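Z., the sequence and structure:
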Amino acid sequence: MDLFDTHKPETLGTTLLWEAVVDIAEREDLGQGPLGKRGIVPILGGMFRGGPGMGADRADFHGTVEAGGADRQLLRPDGAKELDALYEMRVADGTLLTIHNRVVIDETGPGPRYAVSKITVTAPQGRWDWLNRRLIVGTLQSARPERVAVIIRGWLVAEQD
């Protein structure tokens, strides 16, 4: 008997937790490093709102993206770009969430542009601390030309029934 046959795979799915519009400054060049061309994009602020994955808390999960964070960028020799963003989102109830968003962007491969991330949330003890214990993946889109911003969506990864 094969263990793969007796232990069927669990199916994973995603549900939208939030979407954020993050205002950004122009990219600043930090020069060539040992792993590729480096840059930084200051985060100027923005706003977010909860998605259906927030359940009953959806209406209460909204607020601002705080100014002062930054997105460190690395353009690798293979053409892919790695982003390492650290910033805060302030929920309307005053709770401050630290967001660490690590993105891989590939516009050189087959198919459409690939821009997917792993998002880690650090929340204080309280109503939103369950976000500390979840796997969240993200997507990233430019909001240009309408706004000098990016749209970031956070998706909860969970087992499906």
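The helical segments are 3-6. Residues 3-6 form the longest helix (4 residues).

Let me know what you think.
H.
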